Amino acid sequence: MWRCLSVLSALHTTPSLRDKNFRDARREPSNVTCAWRDDIITRGRKEDTHGDSLCTLLRSRPGKLPEMPAACESLLDDIEDIVSATDPKPHDRQNARQNIVPRARKRNKNKIQEEEPPADSTIPGTQKIWIRTWGCSHNNSDGEYMAGQLAAYGYSITEQPEQADLWLLNSCTVKSPAEDHFRNSIKKAQEANKKVVLSGCVPQAQPRQEYMKGLSIIGVQQIDRVVEVVEETIKGHSVRLLGQKKDNGKRLGGARLDLPKIRKNPLIEIISINTGCLNACTYCKTKHARGELASYPVEELVDRAAQSFQEGVCEIWLTSEDTGAYGRDIGTDLPTLLWKLVEVIPEGAMLRLGMTNPPYILEHLEEMAKILNHPRVYAFLHIPVQSASDSVLMDMKREYCIADFKRVVDFLKERVPGITIATDIICGFPGETDEDFKETLKLVEEYKFPSLFINQFYPRPGTPAAKMEQVPAHVKKQRTKELSQLFHSYSPYDHKIGEEQHVLVTEESFDSQYYVSHNRFYEQVLVPKDPAFVGKMVEVKIFEAGKHFMKGQPVQDSYIYTPSITKPLAKGEVSGLTEESKPPNNPESLLQTSREGLQTFFFVTALLAAVIAFVGIKLL
């Protein structure tokens, strides 16, 4: 029987034999067919005594078999139709199945573990970054923006430098000590095998310093590209972006104001209203970094302020190298901006105006007095005088005389009762004589500034003042000491003991013993450390006064006002991000997201391929 099947198979699969038999069958159909049939029957009986059904079938149709192909097809429709006497019957097969145990599918005992990037991973967005900022509030604002962008991309911002994979060092170039700290931090990072990115005014003004060789630098106007620089640095590349942002050839204020940021204090929004200045002070290195004046449009600044209030901020600081010069490059001015901002400040929230030089506020004194009397604006102004000697001011190229400074201060003190005037003084500027310094002492004695920033002169490289004849170091130190003693000889707040004041609580004191608040005149008042006071306007009674602060006790049964229109962001939370746009909190989540995306991709691809195949079959 099996030989019969072999012959049938050969006829179906061997073209030459099949074609020859076809031709022979057409010429001699009866002889060929019968001979072939008899041979199969004879051999089948000898080799398979159980092929009776097949033999009977063949004998029952003598001489009537069709041509070869038709005969084969009629004899064998399906190989499974051929059975023998020894084959198990269906009943036997059913009984035999009861003893068959299906083989269990093997399972992987070791469950697939969640993939985690190695500790030294170079996958962008999985590293920890430590950010250190020196200097002014403008620099601090830049640091907040860079932190926000990095966190929004997936990087983890840490306060522990030893845990960080990369250090982002945001520098200040005003004084030599600040640059020394910056340089020492670079050395520490390299000794600890940390990746380093430099930013701020020092590398912007002096990018070719030897100690910066081979390190990545991001310029003060390129902070919106910090993610790119960090990515390349982590990969081992050195990147330097120091260009200026321009629009149709006109210099812009800098990076966009609507970038993500992480506020160091979630209750305080620092807004840079312009960058650079109009002056050319002979001692200033900052001008080399920040450049000429470039102001942000009023609308963008108002939008940024409004957004910050929607995130629970209750205090805004306006900052720049010179806020008084705002708008002169774009056809507007500072009072115009301030009146627009006041409109979006919620009741109880406050605005603090940053440093302004005397020349650019003189023409706006009337309007400025009105604004500083507004209940949502601190009666506070920082006006640096630097020296009370006209001769020294001329050498500094300050563009005002001491009479101009006094005019500003006297006018504001008269029109804004209780206003706080803060100022700066440089001791030992090149060419300063004893008589010049005495003029400065007289000025401090006359006005008794409650807030005075005393700076010993440091020649900054590349500035005109560095080339002038220097005052001996011991003389500079002596003058600095003498002025400091004068400043500490008077108590600006003793007369306020017993007063009841409304204060806005915004932060914790350095010693963690009190909460820090400020009254209407931006004078510092320490209050008991009660979490219920944070971000609130509280009424207190002053019971103690020091040189730099007062202490207040909450008035019993007084109303505690909440100026924030919504709950503040958590510390470290990124400003300006919706829940949908926030990145996963950890690398594992990033990997999980990637796997889910791949699974979806492969499923859709397979489904599409199946549809195409189905359509193709139907068309054929």
UniProtKB/TrEMBL annotation:
The chain crosses the membrane at residues 597-617. Residues 85-124 are annotated as: Disordered. Residues 263-494 form the Radical SAM core domain. Its EC number is 2.8.4.5. It comes from the Eukaryota. It is an enzyme of class 2 (transferase). PROSITE patterns: MTTASE_N, MTTASE_RADICAL, RADICAL_SAM, TRAM. It is a single-pass membrane protein. It is found in: Endoplasmic reticulum membrane. Residues 494-556 form the TRAM domain. Its main location: endoplasmic reticulum. Residues 127-235 form the MTTase N-terminal domain. NCBIfam families: MiaB-like-B (TIGR01578), MiaB/RimO family radical SAM methylthiotransferase (TIGR00089). PANTHER family: RADICAL SAM PROTEINS, THREONYLCARBAMOYLADENOSINE TRNA METHYLTHIOTRANSFERASE. Catalyzes the methylthiolation of N6-threonylcarbamoyladenosine (t(6)A), leading to the formation of 2-methylthio-N6-threonylcarbamoyladenosine (ms(2)t(6)A) at position 37 in tRNAs that read codons beginning with adenine. This is Threonylcarbamoyladenosine tRNA methylthiotransferase. It comes from Xenopus tropicalis.
